[in-house]
Amino acid sequence: MKPMSRAFVAGATGYTGREVVRRLVEQGMSTVAHVRPESPRLEQWRRGFVALGASVEATAWEERAMAESLRRLQPTLIFALLGTTRARGRAARRKGGPLETYESVDYGLTMLLLRAVKSSAPAARFIYLSSIGAGSRSANPYLEARRRAEEEIRQSGVSYVIARPSFITGPGRDETRPLERIGAVVIDGALVVAGFLGARRLRERYGSTTNVILARALVRLAFDAAAVNTIVESDGLRI
Predict the structure, then answer these.
(1) Structural domain includes residue 126
(2) Residue 197 lies in a domain
(3) Please, where are the H alpha helices in 130-171?
(4) Total domain count for the chain?
(5) What pLDDT was estimated at residue 96?
(6) In a domain, 24, yes or no
(7) Separation of alpha carbons 227 and 235, rounded Å
């Protein structure tokens, strides 16, 4: 690891993002956790990340401001771990906050970050957390937002790693996400049966993972020279 290397984690307060920050710090990486400036828990997040050994940036999600922050920080690794849910979007509408949709967050903020990287830190590696199923056009708005983001990342000229995990589950989520939990249990159960019937590859590809295992894989891939400009499916994220 180079002495001046630095990681910038967008989506640091998310379920996977928190573990990515923890893992980077454990490996001795200078780590910057991004927190939305309007977050009601900004100071709580700041105290938590500083206690881990990371620093905190609360740059607004505005392209010029983000580009200026990246120009100042000059990160060598940029983790794009951004995403929303329908429940979060409904909650934002009730509170009169900015619109949160797959289009505005999963795609829009990822693209804003990518443009800022291209203008201010073009030598950085861009690690994008996508989803299994995002490799082809879909009527599902979540998967389609991810597919479009992947396409633009691949065409950007920026060094990248795209990760496509299956369900991410485990304890410690801020959001309960009962449907995702149930889906993971049902699919994992079906895949165990499939594994006994000889469909081991199917089980490895579609089985759920935890945020800890996924974070470990994302950080490993970020430092892997052989992983440059690659797409890693879920079975490669449990190694």
Answers:
(1) yes
(2) no
(3) 141-155
(4) 1
(5) 61
(6) yes
(7) 15
User: How many residues in the chain?
Assistant: 239
The CATH number covering residue 229 comes to 3.40.50.720
pLDDT tens, position by position, 130-169: 999 999 999 999 999 999 999 999 999 999 999 999 888 8
Q: Does residue 208 sit in helix, strand or coil?
A: coil
User: Which SS3 state, helix, strand or coil, does residue 14 take?
Assistant: coil
Closest CA to 82 of 141, 143, 15: 15
The residue segments making up the domain with residue 93 are: 6-167+210-237
Q: Could you write out the DSSP letters of every residue in 49-118?
A: HHHHT-EEE---S-HHHHHHHHHHH--SEEEE-----HHHHHHHHHTT-----IIIIIIIIHHHHHHHHH
Query: For the segment 29-38, what is each residue's pLDDT rounded down to a tens digit?
Result: 999 999 999 9
Let me know: does 44 contact 105? Beta carbons within 8 Å.
no
State the Cα–Cα distance between residues 17 and 212, nearest whole angstrom.
Answer: 10
